[in-house]
Design a protein that fits this description.
The protein contains two helices and five strands. It is an alpha+beta fold and 97 residues long. It has one domain: 2-Layer Sandwich (YaeB-like fold), CATH 3.30.2310.20. A hairpin with a 2-residue loop joins strand 4 and strand 5. The mean pLDDT is 91.
């Protein structure tokens, strides 16, 4: 199995990296990206780990960073739809497929 990123999720990650680079420095930004990659690998290996939500989506939190990965389990792998800060409104980018 593998994973793919929705273009919006790519944007979400880029925004988070910019924020951490500017506010906490490049070391923290790299740690964010490493944690995201660790979670993606875990979800590819065990796609049922996340908490089920509506429309066949699942969520899984990053450790240390207050972000959730919203994804869908497909036959070919997982599709990461959203990388959302946990304090955003729950409906944030709810239309991504």
């Amino acid at each position: 199995m593998t994973y793919s990123l929705h273009p919006g999720a790519e944007h979400d990650i880029a925004k988070a990296l910019d924020f951490y680079s500017e506010q906490a420095g490049p070391v923290v930004a790299v740690r964010f990206l490493e944690e995201f990659e660790r979670i993606t690998k875990l979800l590819v290996e065990h796609p049922g780990l996340g908490t089920p939500t509506t429309g066949g989506r699942r969520t899984f939190p990053l450790k240390v960073f207050p972000y959730l990965v919203v994804y869908r389990n497909l036959e070919t792998g997982i599709r990461i739809l959203i990388v959302r800060h946990q304090y955003r409104k729950p409906g944030y980018t709810g239309s991504r497929r």
